[in-house]
Design a protein that fits this description.
173 residues; Immunoglobulin-like; 5-stranded antiparallel beta sheet; 4-stranded antiparallel beta sheet; 14% helix; 42% strand
């Protein structure tokens, strides 16, 4: 129970920081006429809220669908998991759906046209008897019009609703 409380505190703190920093960045400078402000997508890369998971023997593959919500192409450069708790070790990161046979390595540049979606999947070695309380988020580096950016994306607040069969994790959904 204490671990779950710690996880919730960490996730809430990260969300508060992101909302606060984006709010501060979006505030107009005093004296700037509102007519000079053009609506823009603050973050071209976003999470669609679709997730997937596949157990591969004692490994776990987790994925999220991402979308280019801007009006211009982006190039996905690198993706990595954000693991505030120990218990998982990332082994493979790919652009492509869970269980896909020939995915594209997420270290390779991956063009994503305006409005298009793709899956980001990461395969993990599970280092604990039961991964249920572990949160997993994602960070994606990209370029758009020669400018670099980073998108911090949610994914799994914990793995309690992710099926994982193990003799030591019998209560998996």
């Amino acid at each position: 129970m204490a671990v779950l409380a710690l996880v919730l505190i960490v996730v809430a703190a990260m969300a508060g920081y992101l909302v606060g920093s984006r709010h501060a960045a979006a505030t107009a400078t005093p004296g700037t006429p509102s007519s000079s402000l053009t609506p823009a997508v603050t973050e071209p890369i976003a999470w669609t809220s679709k997730r997937c998971s596949v157990q591969l023997k004692d490994r776990l593959q987790l994925g999220i669908e991402i979308v280019n919500q801007s009006t211009t192409d982006v190039t996905l450069r690198q993706a990595r998991p954000v693991l505030p708790l120990h218990g998982l070790n990332a082994t493979t990161t790919t652009w492509g759906g869970c269980g896909q046979l020939s995915p594209t390595a997420a270290g390779a540049d991956y063009p994503l046209p305006a409005g298009a979606t793709t899956w980001l999947t990461i395969t993990f070695d599970v280092l604990v008897p039961c991964p249920a309380p572990i949160p997993v988020m994602f960070t994606v580096n990209y370029t758009q019009s020669s400018h670099s950016g980073t998108a911090d994306l949610p994914g799994f607040s914990d793995l309690g609703d992710v099926p994982y069969t193990s003799a030591k994790c019998p209560d998996s959904p």
